[in-house]
Amino acid sequence: MNEIKLTTKASYLWQWGKLLSLTGAAQVLVQGSSLVGGILVIRLLPASEYALYTLANTLLGSMVVLADSGIGAGVMAQGGKVWQNPSQLGAVVATGLKLRLRLAVGSLVLALPLLAYLLLHHGASALMTTLIVLALIPAFFAALSDTLWEVAPKLHQRVKPLQKNQLAVSLGRLVLTALTLFTCPWTFVALLANGFPRLWGNKQLKALSGELLDLKQTPDPAVQKELLGMVKRILPYTLYYCVSGQITIWLLSFLGSTASIARIGALDRLSVVVTVFSTLFTTLISPRFARLSGDRSQLFRHFLRIQLGLLVVAFCTIAGVRMAATPILWVLGPEYTGLEGELTLNMTGNCLNWIAGSTYALYSSRGWAMKPLVSIPLSLLPIVAGTWFLEVGTLLGVITLNICIACVQVCVSITYSCFKIYQTPRQTDPAAF
Predict the structure, then answer these.
(1) On the chain, which terminus has fewer CB atoms closer than 10 Å, C or N?
(2) DSSP element (H, E) containing 393
(3) Cα separation of 358 and 284, whole Å?
(4) Do residues 99 and 67 make contact, with C-beta atoms less than 8 angstroms apart?
């Protein structure tokens, strides 16, 4: 009997090791090409232009988060219940696409005027501001549907086609960036080079999803009610996250200099290392966590294992960046030398945010949503305290503030997850991870 258990455990570990190694290798290629493309942007754009590029990308991220408002997590949660039924899964995805498009309009109305103001505030001409705003729109609409078209392949663990799609898009961005910025080193050109490959990739994702779900399905009112309920619970937190998630950029945009914005944008390029782990997590871990049956002991056991893995990866990443800080800054360019301490601290904040975001992905994949009246005050506390005691108009000040905020987010997310797992009843026949 013991031999059978050992054999089963060894087979399980071998399966996961093979899956992580293959997926990780593909992600290294994907994010490696993204990193090279990002360094090209840093090197080829003047510091003033790169500051504008950083502002535009920050607004793009906030627009995408606002247009989602929990829809992606809700589709994953609802899809996890019917993932083996193509018709029902198709209805879930169709409903999510419809709701996300509605929210996209409001996101554009709120974000684009703010972007125009910040660009003008930091020295962009009226013509350049207009071109940047227009160039951001294709990238925004490309980001609206990619995560929803990935739901079915992730639930069915069709990892290899997803990796091929991501690699093709990343290489496309790299090629377009190299071809265009050498001759046209402007922010709006870099944004277009970033958005068009993703539009092509989304068409391929839709074709892949068509093999796993019924594309002809129309939105389901029952699913829409569930998704809207989740959006209502998450929307206040989403609005808060649009500010707190990029608090360093926002504070420097209003209180700091254009040079500081360029520097924090360049340092954040190294967060591509964390993006590798984040993509692995959302591709392999959170979909499987969503598929687990509602057994308390099983959920808690897997949750603890995942948290331990997150901590180990984060510690190793921070240590590696600390040891290689000087050569990393040399690669970024002479305008960013002497920022070894800021680079290490910024990576610490990125890793803590990754842990908080991964924990959020776990509990939201189960359809759990924290009440904004609880989460937002807890999250506002470090922001208010930090802006009072720290010099948030400086690069070091905003990086330190980001670390404080991330620490609170990690504690809140883990505590809430444990609370929801504790409320889950025990079952005698839990599903396998």
Answers:
(1) N
(2) none
(3) 12
(4) no
Q: Is residue 107 scored above 90 in pLDDT?
A: no
- CA 405 distance to own-chain centroid: 17
The model's pLDDT over 204-219, given as tens digits with 9 standing for 90+, comes to 888 888 888 888 888 8
Angle, in degrees to the nearest 10, between helices 2-44 and 159-181? 10
Are the C-beta atoms of residues 151 and 75 closer than 8 Å to each other?
Answer: yes
User: CA-to-CA distance for 291 and 79, rounded, in angstroms?
Assistant: 9
Burial readout 218-238 (b: 16 or more C-beta within 10 A, e: otherwise): ebbeebbebbbebbebbbebb
Residues 21-77: tens digit of each pLDDT = 555 566 667 767 777 877 888 888 888 888 888 888 888 888 888 888 878 878 888
Among 81, 67, 75, residue whose Cα is nearest residue 94: 75
Q: What secondary structure letter does DSSP report for 425? A: P
> Which of 352, 190, 186, 189 lies closest to 278 in space, CA to CA?
352
Q: Which two tokens stand for residue 305?
A: 């294992």
CA distances from 133 to 116, 126, 183, 217 (A): 7, 11, 21, 34
Closest CA to 363 of 429, 428, 279, 424: 424
216 Cβ contact list (under 8 Å, min separation 6): 90
CA of 99: how far to CAs of 11, 42, 54, 102, in Å?
42, 36, 28, 5
Residue type, 394: T
| Higher pLDDT among residues 128 and 276, named by residue | 128
Closest residue by Cα to residue 253 from 57, 35, 39: 57
Give CB contacts under 8 A, 24+ apart, made by 131-135.
Answer: 131/186, 131/188, 132/52, 132/56, 132/187, 132/188, 132/191, 134/188, 135/56, 135/187, 135/188, 135/189, 135/191, 135/192, 135/195
Cα 157–chain centre separation? 19
Query: What type of residue is 186?
Result: W
Dihedral angle sign, alpha carbons of residues 224, 354, 177, 265: positive
- How far apart CA 351 and CA 327 sit, in angstroms, is 20
Q: For residues 202 and 193, what is the distance between their CA atoms, to the nearest angstrom?
A: 15
Indicate the domain borders of the chain.
Answer: 23-221, 245-433
Among residues 224, 195, 169, 157, the alpha carbon closest in space to that of 23 is found at 157
Are 79 and 252 within 8 A, CB to CB?
no
pLDDT exceeds 80 at position 5: no
